[in-house]
Amino acid sequence: MYTLSINILKAEYNEQALLKGLANNDSKSVDTLYKSHFPMVQHFVINNNGSFDDAKDVFQEAMITLYEKVQTDSFTLTCQIKTYLFSICKHLWLKRLQQMGRYNAPLSSEEESVSVEVDMEEFNKKDAAFAIMDRALNSLGEPCKSLLEGYYLNKKGMQELAADFGYTNADNAKNQKYKCLMRLKKLFFSQYNIGD
Prior knowledge:
This protein is an all-alpha fold. It contains eight helices and no strands.
């Protein structure tokens, strides 16, 4: 419990330091905000009829809004930075879709804040699952890790994988891939259930 409260205090301190850095045009703070929060905005925009460039534009507008807010003494952030930026980005993107005639629902602020919280919760769940999958993959060991990455990430065929890993034929490579996948699932779910 004690470490949890220390971690919460550290997180709050880091957020305040980032906001102060942004207010002072500190490039490290700006870079940190981009690296930490742009991926969720990119994910949202691309999954909602947008492109990478659209996501960059929307995120840039949100960063400018946040920058202008932190310049004023009266501004107090009542949520996490990522929630604030995501909320602005979502509103801007849905408004842009509405202007292009690709989104018909009215943008009420009450609905928006509820759906942003739901989206953030969903994003955080997926983000946590990806982190667990990454840990599981890294703890899988070789040759399983490289075999699965070769098949799923590098889109290599079974014949090519058999040659890469010295299996006698594609069927042997396929059997090994299956065994590795089962081990990965076991590792993932053992860690995933602990996190629940």
